Amino acid sequence: MKEIKCTIIQDLLPLYVDDVVSEDTKELVEQHLQTCQVCQKEYEQMTQTLYVPIENKVTLFEKVNKKWNRKKMILIAGSILTTLFLCFAVFSYVFHYEKMIPYSSDLFEIEQQSDGTLVSNYFGKSHAGTGMTHPMKVEIDGEMKNISLIYYVETIANSPTSNFLREDERIGPERFELPDSKTVDQVYYGQFDLEKVIITKEQTWDELLQEMTLIWQR
Ligand SMILES: [Zn+2]
Question: 116: closest CA among 84, 73, 146?
Answer without folding.
Answer: 146
